[in-house]
Amino acid sequence: MAEPKIFGLLGTAPDPKAVYEAAEILRAGGLVAFPTETVYGLGVDAGNAKALARLNQVKGRPPDKPYSLHIHSAEQVHALVPSVPPLAGRLMQRFWPGPLTIVLPGANGQTVGFRLPDHPVALAFLKACNVPVAAPSANRSGSPPPTDAKEVLAALNGGLDCLLDGGPTKLGRESTVVEVLADRVEIRREGAIGKDDILAVVAG
Q1: Distances (CA, A) of 147 to 40, 126, 171
Q2: CA 105 to CA 182: how far, in whole Å?
């Protein structure tokens, strides 16, 4: 397999040409690693079944385990699920952009997780993609999530097409995952945001 295309994108104003090229690679079915404030993600076009199958292969992950979607604005959520519970809206307002993944009821009885990262490179890239991006952490399942580009390359060993190198991540810990069920919240994974902070918003 060819070496991945690597773009160094340090700072708060990432090179739009590099971001656009990375987005083109993703839309063509490629796997693109990119930084967030927590850890590096490995993104594919969520609507491309072949790309998702390759992502599963690279991650070593079963195909029946869904991926959360990375988005560049909260407005995208409304277009992708039948409705957004008011409690989910409060969590979005308080913690987005930031290290919180919110799982909502989707169509056909399924659920969909959403993450709006607080990172200039991630947001520019996701906006340029202009498709929902499935993006787990950029590592093999069961291994520690990578917090810099060097760790991404070591973890995936030829399993990606492009890498946006934004330097070390700020938090170095995965996002907190919550599921919103009507008027209550279940914490699926405690990460960069603590349980007490989530419950404070739930309590209103």
Answers
A1: 6, 19, 9
A2: 9
- Identify any residues that bridge with 103 across adjacent strands, giving them in sequence order: 113, 179
- pLDDT tens, 115-157? 999 999 999 999 999 999 999 999 999 999 999 999 999 999 8
* Core vs surface per residue 156-179: b (16+ CB within 10 A) or e: beebbbbbbbbeebbbebbbbbbb
Those residues whose C-beta lies under 8 Å from the C-beta of residue 131, and which sit 6 or more positions away, are 26, 27, 45, 46, 47
Kindly indicate the confidence band of residue 14, based on its pLDDT and cuts at 50, 70 and 90. confident
Q: In the chain, what are the domains? A: 5-203 (3.90.870.10)
Place of tokens 């399924």: 110
Do the beta carbons of residue 68 and residue 188 sit within 8 Å? no
Tell me whether strands 69-70 and 133-134 are parallel, antiparallel or unpaired: antiparallel
Nearest alpha-carbon partner for 141 in 31, 61, 34 = 61
Q: Could you tell me the pTM of the whole model?
A: 0.95
In this structure, the number of other CB atoms found within 10 A of the CB of residue 94 comes to: 14
DSSP track, 43-54:
EEETT-HHHHHH
pLDDT tens string 97-107: 999 999 999 98
| CA–centroid distance for 37 within its chain | 11
